[in-house]
Backbone:
């Protein structure tokens, strides 16, 4: 069973609204290689696990647990990017000139029609998240090779999305996730090393220079690219797979540690003009 | 952030393999009104919540947390229904007559091609789970009315699926979920009562007679139809909404309690013939 | 605006339940070349019509009007094929052996889970009807060539579906629709003749022998393959296009006539065990 | 069977072309909570109706009939918003600079590629209309609760879309439909009241102030928010459900009346440069 | 079996980057009436062919072979339109201001997130190519009528897309494909003439004036609108169908000829900043 | 450009009709890890290739060319499995008892409704092939890792499908493709070795025993698991990547060779009762 403490895994930077950035960041939430995919893929792989090699099952479930927190982080980041887009619109001002006319120009219109300026389970093109993306074939090697591709593609896409806006909320979250995808890529590659692969000079994929992404640096300084966070309330055997040198070409050790100290979940303001939340003068 | 203890929220009964039952039970996992939908819908609703009425946010997140455990329960039930379908097939017996020839006749063939006799994120018709099903419009009343329909439809579908097999693994899980859907229906209806609705003699929907479902009775005896389980490791204000009489026509109180004692997560056997898990003689 | 008289365009024959026949007949309702497609395609083509050639617009809308009645006819036929499948199940008999166990074997399970033994907007494979199928390009010749292909394919598919069951409800409806698709194929081909085509010995497509389908014969005797029914309450100029010889190689005239005398819409019995309609003892 | 009189249910205001407004208005036509969904949902619910409570069936079919006219209204509004976008382009001017270069910048490109500047069965994100959205479970209470959510969400979305353009064609149609969705919400809520619900101060959802939408006012003055239009050519028993006070907090009566006087269906000009209709010099 | 010579079927003009043009040209690649559809449709029709009339099978396969080259041509044109969009970005410049901020404004964001500024199997709205579009019903007349509609719609859409940009790479490819679609439309119409149709003054559809498209003229001068290219390494009986007058109203003969002399396949530069190809300093 | 010789890459064994086997074999044609996916994925990867490392581009295109022939092979195998299902039905026997009643019981009904007992671009669940499956990210390492997963999953699925029928047409094709997928897996793994990976004892995935699949053995004896067939009519530099030891744990060399001698493409009989091909007595 699953337990919760109301804390985000990284902080939400506050910056100007940027609906175009919110639109492309949806790829990281609901895209084919986004956080909903990783979350559900590792959920199915751990529930469908066969055989006695429990440390591998614990690895799959361990990454799944962190991915739930990643989904929550990206949801909150998109909400921050959309908040007050089109102005604050404090009341029912429908008779005025159209306040969202400009806001929707480069936006996903569903962010304003379905979400009340908030996140959706879709990708950057507006396509809904799709269960056929989940890879869970029950062959442990095939599953983990797919996981390596999934995490590598996650980093690759994020380094490209990073170039689409310099908004601070946008880049802080991307910087954090790039480092954590790298760590998860290392975790699955590490598990495949236990099964015989020598990755040589291949990892990480893509071959990016961490110094080019200032938002990544503080997390690298904290060693976040080489640790697996442990969200278990009971024992886990994940350490029987994850120990020794990182598969990345950095000569460092890969370890299991407690999760980071959490950050507050932002509280979004009322939007009477969007009828959200819609409780006005009813609870009195 | 999200924490885990390796326990199922209800037990998995062991019975004969039944691939046809596994196929239809997928509706309860990956269908439009299944557990993946409830899980993701309440996840988005709680992350996208606006305004200061935190007890409602705590309600949405609280039900979300239980739904993760429901998804895990149905995944394990489907795996039990598929386990050993087509015989035990202990080794690479490909040269023999086709052992899966009969098994796939009334089955979802993807249970054997993609899953290694295990669950998939699809519905009873094999359609993949789809993000467009998630309803999160940011209007609290509209969101909760949709949640009432969602939980009511969940019960309605489960009472129909129940008639499709008498397999014990199948009916034990359906029985548990029918009672819990009823409880969640009550929880959202309760919250709407706080906003002005008198449901009269309407609930529950459908108007089913609990005595017709023997698997439900033990859960009703434990009061599971009128409680909200609390999976929070920190404080929650959910009790400010959920208290007093249940909206169901039973005159009982609706309360918040700790989660039930857990049940072991089954360990599935190796299936060398399906190349699952595929580690044979490599770890030595 | 649209007006209604509660009458079906053809009769519903009563025969045994046949869920496998209901499943394949869905192609005729919600398939890529089914009645929902023709209905919506001609609706969009007539609303999006450009230019002054109103007789062609009247033709497109005229066929649209009949297609609404076709959709209703197939919905009622599928309901007839599903009615009492699995037995009459008059009460809440859930504790008994699974009454639907056999019924779902060759059925679309959604007929029993979503529909209460009733029709769905999906095709024979269970894929939902899809708006991308609608062809409305605004080029009248391209639109009408597509309509000819659509109606021809409708007949072609129905002659193949016809071979899948000898159920009387199933074949009566197919027989009627084959003849009417033929008439609509002729109508669009006729309009293209006005624009320059000589169909030679090509039509109808497919080149079927009406005498092989006994259910078709009575409609041919009434001339239904060579008439356009007129559902307009005001004037229509459709007759400026539809007159003279039929494009089919039968030497007959193609004319515009009033719709046929209608047939009663069946009333389906309660199904308490499926919680349908679910009003029991509440209206009292 | 279905009959037609060539009249729109409300007028089409003429204003400048606005392809960005056409794009977002598609949500109201082909979106998950748009008019095609309401039309098809009530069509299936009325055809699949079970039991003897005919007044409820007449209610479902009655609303269905009006929704066909709503679909036609939105189709014509989108066509008006697209008409002459990119200039009038009277002839084959392909050799000139690209006249559509600007027009497609904030547009749905399919409006120009597939439609000849005309409506499509898709939503604001370009996703095609999908049959899986139709809810028809045969349980009358569940069906009508879903209908309430559907109509409420329709209003909610329309009040948000309203803010995206001040174009007169756009807002006139939205204003009319907001009032009619409200009326249909009341109709289904009314029917549920007959089954035991007291809505208290909940309705309408969202809790909008009609005075903020000047386009709505004339329809409210005519009482359109509290009437059901009757499009039946034969008798209907809908009045046995729809009578007495409106569920909206306005103290007024809800009644059944004849449909409004109709408005002319616009005739769109030829577009030779788009090869629409494509009849040029062929009919002579 | 299939053989290859590294040559494009037409040349790629070099012009400025134009991501908005790349976005709409995707319709021609991955749209419902684009080159991937024609390629796969004729592939299935020729493999599924029944009966002894081999010249028709050779026709279907013959057009299929050219369509593979068309797909490759459009892929390369889209790549040219995207190349250097956002600037040349020669190194890892992530710390700088967001170079893609402007580029994505009117673009398909997946062109930059998934493709490394390169083509995707999607349409102008970003919807992925879909197998349900393939029409292969095994009735030769129905199949060829559908092919005529497919090729006619291809031309129609291309004449509309043509107006969306004056970019030379864009228009050169469209011009070539318009002429070849015309030829294929003629080829299938010709085959239908052998079966009885007189097209009269109908063809080509749409009724476009070739002189309006300067890019088309050189191909018309070479007769490309009235020839079928032959890509067979063995004998073909295609000439038994394709001979005599073209169905287009131009009085010319339709013939079978060898394919055109090929053009070089462009080599795209490295994009280190997009981690493409990602081999930097690894091959040494 | 692409050239063709009418020869299949392997032979079609003749055996009894088996529609259930045809249904599951569709996974190998139109499934997420089937031959259409590999064909289109390598097509896009080679057209979208960046940089000067032409041997890798030649590798991608080289495998693409063979995949076209694989698609054709599976199409023909499915046609063989469906041929004469339901009996030979030589004429228009519609009035008789329903000849397809039994045939569709465990079949994909679209094989009989759309295909004339012939192949479709769909998977074993009837879901249409989808462009979103194509992975072409322009990062060569990520692309090739994905290709390794794709080919490994192809083998894994085929070994599971193999167990579903002992039909000779079915198993001959699966046996051939298992060996060729293995070869392609080796080819991409080989290319990754050139970039630094030591696969150790990992390959092939899954770790299957070739001796269990008698149909594979003859191809292994011919060395087909360790060769790349060359379909180029001009020079290729593929040999600069593919040489030396195979990554599979068999100690053998991996080489480039000419394609195998071809096999005749079967000619399917007329099916007058299915109106296929529909030319009867028209060509005379």
Residues:
């Amino acid at each position: 069973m699953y337990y919760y403490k109301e804390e985000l895994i990284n902080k939400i930077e506050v910056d100007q609204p940027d609906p175009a950035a919110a639109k492309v960041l949806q790829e990281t939430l609901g895209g084919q290689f986004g956080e909903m995919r990783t979350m559900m893929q590792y959920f199915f792989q751990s529930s469908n696990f066969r055989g006695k090699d429990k440390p591998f099952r614990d690895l799959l479930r361990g990454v799944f647990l962190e991915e739930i927190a990643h989904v929550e982080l990206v949801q909150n980041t998109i909400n921050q990017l959309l908040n007050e887009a089109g102005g604050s619109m404090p009341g029912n001002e429908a008779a005025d000139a159209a306040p969202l006319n400009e806001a929707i120009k480069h936006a996903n219109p569903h962010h304003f029609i379905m979400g009340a300026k908030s996140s959706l389970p879709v990708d950057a093109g507006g396509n809904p998240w799709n269960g056929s993306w989940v890879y869970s074939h029950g062959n442990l090697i095939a599953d983990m090779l797919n996981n390596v591709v999934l995490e590598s593609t996650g980093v690759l896409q994020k380094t490209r999305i990073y170039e689409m806006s310099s908004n601070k909320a946008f880049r802080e979250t991307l910087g954090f996730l790039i480092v954590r995808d790298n760590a998860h890529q290392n975790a699955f590659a590490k598990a495949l090393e236990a099964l015989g692969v020598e990755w040589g000079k291949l990892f990480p994929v893509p071959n990016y220079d961490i110094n080019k992404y200032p938002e990544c640096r503080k997390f690298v300084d904290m060693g976040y690219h080489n640790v697996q966070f442990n969200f278990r309330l009971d024992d886990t055997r994940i350490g029987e797979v994850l120990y020794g040198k990182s598969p990345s070409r950095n000569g460092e050790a890969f370890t299991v540690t407690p999760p980071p100290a959490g950050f507050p979940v932002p509280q979004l303001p009322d939007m009477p003009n969007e009828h959200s939340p819609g409780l006005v003068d009813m609870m009195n």
Notes: The two ends of chain E are 37 Å apart (CA to CA).
